[in-house]
Amino acid sequence: MQVNVLLFATLKDIAGSNKVSLLLPEENATVDDIRRGLIDLHPAIERNVQAAIASVNREFARGDSVVLDGDEVAFFPPVSGGSSESPEKPEIYRLPNTPIDHDEIIATITTPATGAVCLFSGMVRGETQREGHLPQTMRLEYEAYEPMAIVKMQQVAAEIRERWPLVLGIAIAQRIGLLKVGQNTVLIACSAAHRDDGCFEAARYGIDRLKEIVPVWKKEIGLDGERWIEGGYLPSVEDNHT
Q: Are residues 190 and 70 in the same domain?
């Protein structure tokens, strides 16, 4: 059985490619079998691939998850569009490589019933006093496992609706590509009829959850070098939306 494996961020750099083709000796191999195959092919990848998150067909997978011929398998480090058709509860999911238009986003998730919009906007920071980061950053490079990222953005929106049913519109946008200091990197916006209908809490949940389960990574680039920033949250199959 031949399997094409997608690699992202640090894993891609070590392997020298974002896609690796593996020939497995038997059918119904597991995710762990594929990990071992990657290590045999690229020994330097062992530490990173052992710590990596796996997905099969754009859902998180365990080591013993069976992989069938034709499945899409991906490995990526912990995570550091489309839109809905409902005019009453609009949703936006985007991975733009151009600046995010805040006014356009707000207008898109505003309905006749909207009386409040809470928006979180992340920025490229030039100075960081935090362990594991470059002290001075010139720019950031964002990379995404794009098909899965959109699916997981939709999952974040569904979780928001389960927790805050009075929320009307939801927008999730994450920039990809190279960004300079001061540029917007990510946007989460939630609209509601009133400010006390959960839009503040939903926007905060949205950005926190995005950083947990949406497969997007950033590389800090500065005068002292560059490095991929990996998160500490390890999603599991329990983080799949059912």
A: no
Non-local CB neighbours of 158 within 8 Å, separated by 6+ positions: 241
- When the pLDDT of each residue in the chain is averaged and rounded to a whole number, the result is 90
Please indicate, yes or no, whether residues 46 and 157 belong to a single structural domain of this protein: no
pLDDT at 230: 79
Domain co-membership, 123 together with 19: no
The CA R_g of the chain, rounded to the nearest whole Å, is 19
DSSP state at residue 78: P
Q: What is the pTM of this model?
A: 0.76
DSSP-assigned letters across all residues of 145-193:
-HHHHHHHHHHHHHHHHHH-TTEEEEEEEE--EEEETT-EEEEEEEEES
Q: Are 198 and 168 within 8 A, CB to CB?
A: no
In a domain, 84, yes or no: no
pLDDT at residue 83 greater than cutoff 70: no
Banded model confidence at residue 84, pLDDT cuts 50, 70, 90 = low
Beta partners for residue 227, in sequence order: 220
As a dihedral over the C-alpha atoms of residue 42, residue 48, residue 53, residue 55, rounded to 10 degrees, the angle is -10
The Cα–Cα gap between 169 and 135 comes to 37
Hey, which bits of 2-41 come out as E strands? Answer: 2-7, 19-23, 29-30
Same domain, 38 and 120: no
Give a yes or no: residue 187 inside a domain: yes
Q: What is the pLDDT of residues 187-196, one digit of tens each?
A: 999 999 999 9
DSSP state of 207: H
